[in-house]
Amino acid sequence: MSSNETSVVQRFQNRSDAFWSGIRDAAGAPAMVLFAGMVGFGAMGKTNGFDVWFTSFTTFFMFALPGQVVLLEMAITGSSVLAIALAVTLTSTRFVTMTVTLFPQFHQKDRNRNLYASVHLLAMTAWAISMKEFHSIEVKHRLSYFVGLGLLCWLISIPGTILGFYLAGMVPPAVTLGLVFINPLFFLLTFTEVKPWINRIAILMGCIFGPIFFIVDRDTSLLTAGVIGGTLAYFLDRKFLRKRAGMIG
């Protein structure tokens, strides 16, 4: 057995140990960043005329800040329920790729109906940290670690939303908007630490194509830049990086 395999096996003694390790890893910067982002969202809810129940319930049931922002913006403009549902669904397409890349790394015995509950804890922060840490976690302990990590991130977001709602108007609007963007920035910085180069290439492609497609059509720019930039990153990885490393013929 290699030293790397030994370190993976010995990291956690049991599932409870893995769960509380996930809690501890979330209790630092991830929780603070999510809390700050939800404070900004809570303030947005109040300044746009929504009550504290509606604003906080979106965090409780959706737990997806970009989708929550889209929901508020479209509700303000009086969009139909169908249009709002479609727009929120499009902003959440990232969860498809996040799910298919993360969940297959769980132990075979953990891939059952209980994952329908666990998927609610999937967010950019928990996903990025899990992708970075899973290589050093024994397979049978990965789900417990993820649940601990995601659970605290979700729970801390709810009081953050409520606090932001009641603090609205006490801070400049620019600060409120800045808090909303802290979470994506933290995700970006965290994801650059994931080892495969394809991830860094995809981020670079997003930085290049994002502004271009925003100028062309701001309403579809995020989706278009993600599809084209991600596809190009995948092509470069398959045709050049993996081939150079001898991983494919």
From TrEMBL:
<dbReference type="Pfam" id="PF03591">
    <property type="entry name" value="AzlC"/>
</dbReference>
<protein>
    <submittedName>
        <fullName>Branched-chain amino acid ABC transporter permease</fullName>
    </submittedName>
</protein>
<feature type="transmembrane region" description="Helical">
    <location>
        <begin position="21"/>
        <end position="41"/>
    </location>
</feature>
<feature type="transmembrane region" description="Helical">
    <location>
        <begin position="81"/>
        <end position="103"/>
    </location>
</feature>
<feature type="transmembrane region" description="Helical">
    <location>
        <begin position="115"/>
        <end position="131"/>
    </location>
</feature>
<feature type="transmembrane region" description="Helical">
    <location>
        <begin position="222"/>
        <end position="241"/>
    </location>
</feature>
<dbReference type="InterPro" id="IPR011606">
    <property type="entry name" value="Brnchd-chn_aa_trnsp_permease"/>
</dbReference>
<feature type="transmembrane region" description="Helical">
    <location>
        <begin position="143"/>
        <end position="168"/>
    </location>
</feature>
<keyword id="KW-0472">Membrane</keyword>
<keyword id="KW-0812">Transmembrane</keyword>
<feature type="transmembrane region" description="Helical">
    <location>
        <begin position="53"/>
        <end position="72"/>
    </location>
</feature>
<feature type="transmembrane region" description="Helical">
    <location>
        <begin position="198"/>
        <end position="216"/>
    </location>
</feature>
<dbReference type="GO" id="GO:0005886">
    <property type="term" value="C:plasma membrane"/>
</dbReference>
<keyword id="KW-1133">Transmembrane helix</keyword>
<feature type="transmembrane region" description="Helical">
    <location>
        <begin position="174"/>
        <end position="191"/>
    </location>
</feature>
<keyword id="KW-0813">Transport</keyword>
<dbReference type="GO" id="GO:1903785">
    <property type="term" value="P:L-valine transmembrane transport"/>
</dbReference>
<comment type="similarity">
    <text>Belongs to the AzlC family.</text>
</comment>
<keyword id="KW-1003">Cell membrane</keyword>
